[in-house]
Structure formats: structure tokens, C-alpha cells
Amino acid sequence: MKKLLLVAIAVAISFSFVSCKKCVTCKYEYDYKGQTQVKSYPQECGTSKQIKDFKANVESDAMLHGVSSTCTTN
User: Fold this and answer.
1) Which of 6, 61, 63, 68 shows the greatest Cβ crowding within 10 Å of its Cβ?
2) 3-state DSSP assignment of residue 32
């Protein structure tokens, strides 16, 4: 009985450290010769760090056009 309890605790602890996958879609709009252009990125899924890095890259691209990006969590 004690062994079963220890195994159950070990399994519960191992599941608590599993990284959750999240998905996000980002885009930005900019003006090109008087017309609004939209740059959309495909859905990106990954860990929180991967999503954070992806958002930073999109924002960096948007800053090249002097605008901000918007991202929505899926």
C-alpha cells in the first residue's frame, strides 16, 4: 500500500512538470504607398518560451515598418 502511494505521488509530480503547449497567431498592419498592407503569420504552437520568442520576432519585424504587432492566443 505504501509503495502504491509513493508511485502515485511520483506520477503526479512528473505530470506537474510537463510543459503546456500554447498556440498564438500574430499580425501587423502597415501603410505602403497609401494602402494598408497586412502581414499575417501562421499559427505558432510551443512552450511559453517559444511563444515569447516568436512574439518578439514578430514585434521586431513590425518595428521595421514603424508599427506594433497584435497576437491572439488560440
Assistant:
1) 61
2) strand
